[in-house]
Specification:
globular, three-stranded antiparallel β-sheet, 166 residues
Length: 166
Amino acid sequence: MAWRALRRVGPVLAPRCPRFSPPSPLRVPAARRLATSSLVLSARKFTDKHEWISVENGIGTVGITHFAQEALGDVVYCSLPEIGTKLSKHDEFGALESVKAASELYSPLSGEVTEINAALADNPGLVNKSCYQDGWLIKMTVENPAELDELMNEDAYEKYIKSIEE
C-alpha cells in the first residue's frame, strides 16, 4: 500500500529519493528446499513389511511406503485400530484393501495409538496419492525409543527393496 503512494508522489521526490519498487515475493533457493526435504526423509525409519514411522516429540506417525502402495494398487478401504489400542512391535493393527489385494498392517514400534487418520474413512485413496504426508495411518506413543535403532533408514530400505525385486 505504501509503495503505491510513493509511486504517485515519486516524480515530485525523484531528485531526492530513488525509485521505489514493490517488494518481490520471498524465494527460497532450490538447494535449500532440497536439503530440508532430504532431512525430513532421512528421519523416517522403515520396516521389512513396508511400513514407515517418523517420530517427533515422542509421537510416531505411521504409514505404508511408496513401494507398498504401488504393489497394492488403488486402496479402497482402510481398517484401523481404535484410539487407545496398545501395540507391541510387529503386532497387526489393521489392514488395507485394494482392487488387487488386501494387506495387513504391522506396528513398527511398541506404544499406544493416539490418533487415526479419519480422512481415510472417506478417502482411502490418500494412501496412494500421498503415502508420506496426507495418507498416514496412525499416530502412536513411542514406548521404547531404542526400537527405532532396529529399523532401516532410507538408504538401507532402498537397498532392501532392490534385493527383493531381483
